[in-house]
Amino acid sequence: APIGTPAFEDRTLQAIVAGHQRLLDALVAFSSDSWDFAVQGANLLLRYCGSPRLLYWCRLLAPSPSLLATARAHDDAKMAAFERISRAGALPLSARRQVQLPIRLGGFGLVSTARVASAAYLGSVAATVGDVWDRFRGHSWMLGTEAALLALPWLAQAASARTDLLVSIPSAAVPPVSQFIARPHARLQQRLSEALAKQDFTVLLESFPVGSRERARLLACQGPLSSGWLSAIPGQSSGVNRKCLNSFAYRMATAVTLGLPFPLANLSSTCTCGAAIDALGDHFFLCHQATAERVFKHNTLLDVFKSILAEVGIPVVAEVPLRSLGITPPDSDPNSQRMDLFFTVDGEGILADVTVRHPCRPDNSTPHHRSVNRTNGRLPGGAVAASGEREKERKYGANCRQQGYTFIPLAAETFGC
What we know:
Distance between the termini: 43 Å
Radius of gyration: 26 Å
Strand order of the largest sheet: 1-2-3-4
Helix content: 40-55%
Largest sheet: 4 strands, mixed
Number of helices: 16
Strand content: 5-15%
Number of domains: 2
Number of strands: 4
Order of helices and strands: HHHHHHHHHHHHHHEEEHHE
Shape: elongated
């Protein structure tokens, strides 16, 4: 660890960050490669390798002004790399805050090192100070009392870090440093970082107007498994079994998730159905035209489920007419006359139907849109998909079971739930 004068510490940290910058530049260059999964791979490497590298030093060094300045510079460099990989331009503050949230809270996992520096240092002290006391107590050079031990600079700095955390997250239980001597506090850094992240999510959510599209979007991004695409490891990049997002699709998903202008919305101001196209692309996820993004997502999910079943050796038939199975369609709508998937498992006939739901509407465009945003801006992520499941069940469930089939609704949201 660079323990010494502030000038020595600062020089060492600057050299460390300069080394990290070379990695960030390499990831940006990698994202421009011709491989289908270049952007997906670059973002994974940025999160797993580029983002956390300075945290090691935050566990070794107290959060001094020099360290925090270095951490903020590293945060800015990570964000700049993300912007270049995503080709999103300079992100607005709300998008930057979302990018820095953990994936489970609707972010991209590029956690701010400066934000968690105090938690990292205190967590390191919590795991080690008791061991130091037990191993070296009684040695001639070791201080004789716990009070004297706590007066050592590295523990005094830990107490200062604790004070900072109590100010940042007053609701969190942050034990006093003296308790660490008698009993190690494992995973304290993780618990404190989680509390900081939840607070940051709440601050971001409350920065959006009540009932706004942005609240509905952020809550949807926090839904169960909604950001699974961010952790998916790219596999086969071509053919029917491809398991990666090409660079355009990944960048488009990034824009949708962060509430940035939808790339396809720049092509025309009017949809082929005659409706106006909004800048954020909500219309593309609501339109029933065959060329709409909504239909594309439905068909893509259908292909994915077919591929999964085929890989485990289950033959599947797509778009089966209900009447061919002796099932009465629920209504006269042409889309209600068939089921997306039909397959058998251990002699049991199973029918499945895919639906993709969009939780957002263009803000204030109509009273109905305002009502949808207001409702979904209060519901937890995944609620819209769950509503789609219930609707499919009401539509098909009883008729399918009456003929001895099991019905499974396969509902998803445009943000991934």
